[in-house]
Amino acid sequence: MPKTAAAPLTNSSEFTVSELSQALKRTVEDAYGNVRVRGEITGFRGPHSSGHCYFSLKDESAKIEAVIWKGVHGRMRFRPQEGLEVIATGKLTTYPGSSKYQIVIEALEPAGVGALMALMEERKRKLGAEGLFDEARKQLLPWLPEVIGVVTSPTGAVIRDILHRLEDRFPRHVLVWPVRVQGEGSAEQVAAAIHGFNALEVDGKIPRPDLLIVARGGGSLEDLWSFNEEIVVRAAAESMIPLISAVGHETDITLIDFASDKRAPTPTAAAEMAVPVRAELLVEIGTFERRMMLCWQRAQDSRRNELRAAARALPNAGDLLAIPRQRLDGAGASLPRALRANTHAHHRRFVEASSGLTLRVLRGQIAHATQRQTVCGERLKLSARALLRQRRDRFANLELRLKASKSANAQAQRNAITRNRESALRLTERARRALTTLLQRQQARVEASNKLLAALSYRSVLARGFALVRDEQGAALHAAANVSAGARLSIEFADGRVGVTADGDHPAPPQTTKPAAPKSTTPKRKAKVDQGDLF
Question: How many CB atoms lie within 10 A of CB 363?
Fold first, then answer.
């Protein structure tokens, strides 16, 4: 097959890779500035160390990369999880570093109630494994709380129902912490309210509640989702104040119901659990009062009968005191004689003790004490001199050892400085040689590059007798067919340029036969493949 002539090259504009990537990025972002994509989350391994989230959205036949920036992820009410079907809202963009397109998510929501139920079950298993739903950690409700804290919306009918029910059963002091019960930020407000009630001081200006009620009216699963958030469940589990959850109607189940100390089917039922009925208590107290009076009267009658029986069994007082009275009379009669005998005995002991206290004995004792004092003084002087001499010898030895140690330490430091100086000189010499070698290598590379540049330059081709033909615009001409009659041309030789005008004739090459060249013994070189013009 004959080869067809190659199409002439066109002078199209050139793009760098960065320019082309930026152009594609602008095109995609302008065309898809805000999109909603439904798909299943895959490849999610939690937030990156930078706080950003990277994962993919997929369906049956396609997959798209997704990213959530750190600030957006922190504000999200619904967090991404592996395998969950979601609806993502954001904008499409491209990532030039790997030539791929991706969606930057600004909002994320589950795709339907089924996804919410699956997420709720998974979160229930996770928190249950941590022990937040154990019955052993639940607290008993106070029988009659003095102060009741209510966490709910201040504008709904829930707070009015709770207040009316408390007023009917047993009026109590109620503290209301107003929060949002649905929508963005509601979970954080409910958790903050629970922590805030627990942070109140017992005897502070604002009384600390004895019981908490977290209440909300009925609604769909999406409306009640704030009470399934992990932050709310953990706050309810960590509350040191007993907590009743009254979220939704009787058929509505949220995760806070499992973490709370008591679940009420409705907010009104929560108020009934919180306090007893005052009228019933009054009736019961009256019954107890009557029973107590009857028991007291029967006990008094029994004690009175026992006292009368004990009084009849007691003997006569005169018979009981006859013998003690006789003993007292005998002791009174013998008391003067005993006092005189005791006085004589003490007098004899005094005389015996005073007979040994003569002046000569006292002088002998004083002389003996004086001699002992003199001997002790001499011994004390000798001991002080010996101790002083011993301390002086010890300090002299320490001084000699300190001087020797100082000299040895100074010599060791001098040796270390000498070794470090020699090491520094060796390293300096090695660095100088390495720098000289590196400069020589770089100089050789530069010279090789200059030689390669000179060899590849088109001016070396012109020096061998060739010429470069350009048109009036300065574009290089590659074929005679591109030259029209009368066209202004510029011919560049090795030593300069010459302007010419084409006359339109194309002379045929002369048909001269060349003499046959003698055969060379050297092997023939392969013909060079045409790689196009260098320009």
Answer: 10
pTM: 0.43
The amino acid that residue 527 corresponds to is A
- DSSP classification of residue 13: P
What is the distance between the terminal CA atoms of the chain, rounded to a whole angstrom?
Answer: 31
Across the beta sheet with 496-501, what order do the strands follow? Answer: 468-470, 488-493, 496-501
Q: Tell me, what's the pLDDT at 12?
A: 66
Residues 384-411 have a mean pLDDT of: 92
> In sequence order, what are the beta bridge partners of 52?
none
Q: Are 65 and 56 in contact (CB under 8 A)?
A: yes
For the cut 70, the answer to whether the pLDDT of residue 534 exceeds it is no
Distance CA 181, CA 179 (A): 6
CB under 8 Å to 243, separation ≥6 — which residues? 194, 211, 212, 213, 214, 236, 260, 261, 262
In angstroms, the CA 195 to CA 450 distance is: 75
Residue 14 carries which DSSP code? P
d(CA 242, CA 261): 6
**Residue pair 483/502 in contact by the 8 Å Cβ criterion:** yes
Give dist(CA 173, CA 181) in Å, integer: 23
Q: What whole-number distance in Å separates Cα of residue 528 and Cα of residue 403?
A: 89
Q: What is the pLDDT of residues 49-83, one digit of tens each?
A: 888 999 999 888 888 999 999 888 888 777 787 77
Q: Binning pLDDT at 50, 70 and 90, where does residue 99 land?
A: confident
Q: Which two tokens stand for residue 337?
A: 């004689």
Of 492, 513, 489, the closest CA to residue 501 belongs to 489
pLDDT at 112: 63
Contacts of 101 (CB under 8 A, 6+ apart): 28, 64, 65, 92, 93, 94, 95
Is the pLDDT confidence value at 5 over 50? Answer: no
Cβ contact 152:181 at 8 Å: yes
pLDDT for position 509: 52
User: Quick check: 514 pLDDT over 80?
Assistant: no
Half-sphere exposure of 267 (CA within 13 A, CB side): 23
Find the mean pLDDT for residues 219-223.
Answer: 77
- Beta carbons of 132 and 236 less than 8 angstroms apart: no
Percentage of residues of the chain with pLDDT beyond 70: 91
Nearest to 229 by CA among 267, 183, 195: 183
Q: Where are the beta strands (DSSP E) in 140-247?
A: 147-152, 173-178, 211-216, 243-247
